[in-house]
Amino acid sequence: MTDYLAAVMEMLGPAQNRYADPAAWDRLHAELDTELPPDYRALVDAFAPIQINGHLYLSHPATERWNLGQDIHNKVEAWSEAPWDDLDLDADEDPRQLFGLDELSFGTRNGLWPIASTDRGETIFLLAAPEAPRLLVNYDETWAEHHMSFAEWLYRYLIGEDMSGPNSAAFYPGPVQLRHLPMSTDERPEPWYGPDRGM
After folding, report:
1. Containing structural domain, residue 49
2. 110 CB contacts (<8 Å, ≥6 apart)?
3. Burial of 101 (0-12, 13-18, 19+ CB in 10 A)
4. Number of structural domains found in the chain
């Protein structure tokens, strides 16, 4: 069985852990009243705030800019404002029908938690249900469901699988490109690359 966290770390290169801070995660979990998965926390601590392969953004709970807690709250507020009951959604557009959800809520114990996003309009949600957690991805009015860890989702995303729905792959051959997100208005971080992947 593949250790997806190790496989992703191998693709991204050595962990930097610039802002790793267990207390920041404790504060965030207390604030959210839910706990984010260990593999997700490990990847965030290792690299975030980061842009991966030019599209995927990960924030961190210990930074003022690109703060994960603030990002989650902003997205929860925005997604919660949508009048889901009044929208005329087809069955393949309604996450309640697609995934058997009794209700659609964001930022609640059994609701959807936005944990990552892309500049292509994708939002990756953790569904923190009592049963095994799963990921739901919204992209261009479509939804995709993945019964897997965030590390496995990221691994498959980086090798070019359709992880946001049909024809959604964003594959770039060669090493993965990483870029720190600017921590001040005048900072312009340069990209760097992970190890050769033989792709």
Report:
1. 17-84+93-178
2. 128, 129, 130
3. middle
4. 1
Instruction: For 41-73, write each residue's pLDDT tens digit.
Output: 999 999 999 999 999 999 999 999 999 999 999
Asked if residue 131 lies in contact with residue 14, where contact means CB atoms within 8 angstroms, the answer is: no
- Reported residue count of the chain is 199
> CB neighbours (10 Å) of residue 87?
9
CATH number of residue 46's parent domain: 3.40.1580
Q: Is the entire prediction scored with pTM above 0.85? A: yes
The answer to whether the bond into 189 is cis (omega within 30° of 0) is no
Alpha helices in 58-191 (DSSP H): 68-80, 95-99, 150-158
Q: Which amino acid is at 127?
A: L
The one-letter amino acid code at 168 reads: S
